[in-house]
Amino acid sequence: NTLDYDYTNEEYDLIYNPLKMQGKKEVEVEVWDYNKVGKNDIIGVVNIDILPSKNKETQIELFIQPKNDKGEVQSNLNTDQKLGKISFSMIYIPEDDYLKRLRDAELKKRKTEQELIRQKELEEQRRLDEIKRIADEQRRLEEEKRRQQEALNAQYIKGYVQFKNISVSNLKKMDFIGKSDPFVLFKAGESSQQTTVAKNVLDYQYLNEEYEVLYDPSVMQGKHEIEVEVYDQDSVTKNDIIGAVSVDILPSLNQERQFDLFLQPQKDKKDDSSKSETSSTNSDKKLGKVSFSMNYISEQDWIKNFKQEQLRKQKIKDEIIKQKELEEQKIKDEIQRRLDEQKRIEEEKRKQKEALDAQYIKGVVQFKNISVSNLKKMDLIGKNDPFVLFKAGELTKQTTTAKNTLNYDYLNESYELLYDPAVMQGKHEIEVEVYDQDSLTKNDLIGAVNVDV
């Protein structure tokens, strides 16, 4: 399906035998149109004299000429018959030269083949040498990697990883109603610790919460990271994981380090690879952040620290007990001091009372110039009917009763009461009471005073 074509890399030989050519000195070149179904159609033909090309390659470019009914070229002139052009190079080689060329070509071909075989053998040897070099280099790299891994693994000793200053922030909302109920899970293989559960928050600080997990290289199987997972607790369904991070513990060996990391989506369980998160590789996946400080200590140091902590606690406990005993002794001493002081005061009071009582001798107490004023009104109708009552123990004296008044002078009235210390039982006062007399009901006490004799 073309009108122009270059038959690249196509070469052909024809044998020219003058005995069979019957004096004909031209090569006939025909151009055909190939048909798959019917008969091929001839497009045209050219005749070329071979002698000018004897032992010399000649480039030929001729217009294609039509054939007549007898199958002969209608014209030997190179005129454009609108049938197209044909181009090719041609060389006419005598038989002896041709055979020599064939032999030379065969020798050259054989030499080339041998050279190719040798080159192929060299290439194959180089390929095998390169494969061996690559294999040796790979073995060297694997051995180097194995040694590096062994050296690295040797740094990951059995010990405890401690966590504190734990918090979460900007967590993704997991519940349809409300926020989230987050808790943090720290995992080292089968060893794990969980924080308390916060309620209905997206930000939370787990104050005063500290945890530690055991890191055992024989169990971890070469894994050097602690998994930190943040969940939303659901009371009805399964807890939802919000996100997780993996943190290499070695940088925290014997030194507390603070971590603030973006949570990452949970990895496929089929993917056993574990990539440690750092601040440079930890990208924000809009799941929130988890923060904590981490310290990785060896088992020996942990035991040493544990013993020191136990000794410290015991020392504090002993100190507390000692302080408590001292405080109790101080309290006892203070109680005893107060008891002694109270006894001393009571003894002092007793002596003062005895001295005071000694001044209160048996005698008569006289009352005169008696009056009342501004008394409280006790009756609904009218004023008061007041009288005054003087009492010394069981002995009493009463004034006359005034009528319908709030102020009154008991003129020319005087009274005496016997004061007997033996009867008064240490009481040094005379009781003075003012009453409102009622003829029908009980007398009403308006008020009273006690007066030291």
For this entry, give a set of tags:
453 residues; alpha+beta; Immunoglobulin-like; four-stranded antiparallel sheet; 5 helices; 30% strand; coiled coil; Synaptotagmin_plant
In DSSP terms (H or I, runs of 4 or more residues), the helix count works out at 5
Report the portion of residues in β strands.
25-35%
Q: What is the number of strand segments? A: 21
Query: Helical percent range?
Result: 25-40%
Poorly predicted sequence stretches spanning 5 or more consecutive residues: none
Dominant shape: rod-shaped
Backbone CA Rg: 65 Å
The name of the CATH topology of the domain at 159-299 is Immunoglobulin-like
Structural category: alpha+beta
What's the helix-strand series? HEEEEHEEEEEHEEEEHEEEEEEHEE
* Main sheet properties: 5 strands, antiparallel
Could you say what the CATH architecture of the domain at 159-299 is? Sandwich
Can you characterise this structure?
It contains five helices and 21 strands. It has 453 residues and is α+β, with helices and mostly antiparallel strands. Among the domains are: 76 residues, no CATH class; 141 residues, Immunoglobulin-like; 90 residues, Immunoglobulin-like (Sandwich), CATH 2.60.40.150. Strands 5, 8, 9, 12 and 13 form a five-stranded antiparallel beta sheet that branches. The protein has a four-stranded antiparallel beta sheet with strand order 7-6-10-11, with no helix packed on it. A four-stranded antiparallel beta sheet has the order 17-16-20-21, with no helix packed on it. The N and C termini lie far apart (155 Å).
